[in-house]
Design a protein that fits this description.
The protein is α+β, with helices and mostly antiparallel strands. The protein is built from 1 helix and 3 strands; from the N terminus they run E-E-E-H.
């Protein structure tokens, strides 16, 4: 089992997704479809790494929201 961060961003007319731990592994689609498309892209990517006897990266990426409040002035 692998646990990998996926970043989903709003693009012009759709959404795009990528995993910082798997360079080049990307997907794009509607908001409803992008998670499934990215899941499938990661499965194929990881299978390819395994077939090529290349180690699957251990996730180093993480995500955090920062709350910015009263310190911000115009």
């Amino acid at each position: 089992m692998y646990r990998l961060l996926v970043v989903i961003e709003k693009a012009d007319e759709n959404y795009s997704a990528y995993s910082p731990d798997l360079p080049g592994c990307v997907a794009g689609s509607t908001r409803k479809e992008v998670e499934q498309n990215m899941y499938e892209a990661i499965v194929l990517h990881v299978k390819g790494l395994i077939e090529d006897d290349t180690p699957v990266p251990v996730s180093q990426a993480f995500s955090e929201y920062l709350v910015i409040g009263e310190q911000v002035t115009a």
